[in-house]
Amino acid sequence: MKITVLDGKTLQAGIPFPWPVDGEDEWTCFESSSPDEVRERAVGAEILVINKIVMDAALMDALPGLRCIAVTAAGTNVVDSRAAGERGIVVCNTPAYGTDAVAQHVFALLLELCRRTSLHDESVRRGDWGRAGDFCYCLTPQVELTGKTFGVFGYGNLGRRVAEIAHAFGMKVAACAHRSVPAPGYEPFSFVSKEELFRQSDVLSLHCPLTEETRGLVCRETLDMMKPGSVVINTSRGPVVCGADVADALRSGRLGGFAADVLEQEPPSMDDPLLSAPNSLITPHLAWMTDGARRNIVSITLENIRRYKAGDPQNVVNKEWLRRG
């Protein structure tokens, strides 16, 4: 069976190239593929392994031998999953591979916004403490999380884990879930509507997939619902947030802080309004990039492929549209 990896570079960084290029299958591995290279490189493959390669209906029609798309991510918005299903192509993802890695990054971002530790470290190294004339000083307000309301939009595995950590910080937790899920065994916790989540949250953390319903979720209208000085954190998908509206809210002081590991355009142009907005913190889509999480992706993807070959595919995201034949 021919298996082609079209963009494996980000998984490879810092660890040995992960794919089993030896064995009964014919593996072809590319670190990256430009849009102009994708069709030629994908021809003849029964299984494509992708991360950010866009797979639309036209490309699938040009690849009549394609039967499985293995996405090395939890989100599958780069694939037209319905079109794939209608063509008998299985689309599978790697859910929950980096739950702890991303959850920890959420709080790395939040704590930096609240305490500005890097700013104070730089200040000390410049000699400011030595010139302060006292045993302590601070350059920014020091914000304590205890007692504040932590809002979670999207209460899957990751949203639930982030909520647990927020609770451990002594925060009240409110969540908006897309489907019926059990409540956790701690208090105070409540399920609320989208509108109530925006109104109640001192910190709002986004953990939803990118869909037509969630695109532009955080915009001028929803930001106006939030408490003055509140904070938004996005580690889901960039287009869930309207960057221009967030930048305006930061400049006006309406929004107290914004942190993101994802942006609407990746990599961003230097005129992205969030890059120059005050009280913003941007990291380059690295929340998932711990060695452990990347090894989990490889392990899950290889099991997805094994199960597909055995006729019992797992982690299939397009079951509702999938035809057999």
Automatic annotation (TrEMBL):
Domain D-isomer specific 2-hydroxyacid dehydrogenase catalytic: 26-318
Xref: InterPro entries: D-iso_2-hydroxyacid_DH_PdxB, D-isomer_2_OHA_DH_cat_dom, D-isomer_DH_NAD-bd, NAD(P)-bd_dom_sf
Residues annotated as domain D-isomer specific 2-hydroxyacid dehydrogenase NAD-binding: 107-287
Domain of life the protein comes from: Bacteria
Alphabetized UniProt keyword annotations: NAD, Oxidoreductase
MF term (GO), any: NAD binding
Similarity remark: Belongs to the D-isomer specific 2-hydroxyacid dehydrogenase family.
Protein name: D-2-hydroxyacid dehydrogenase
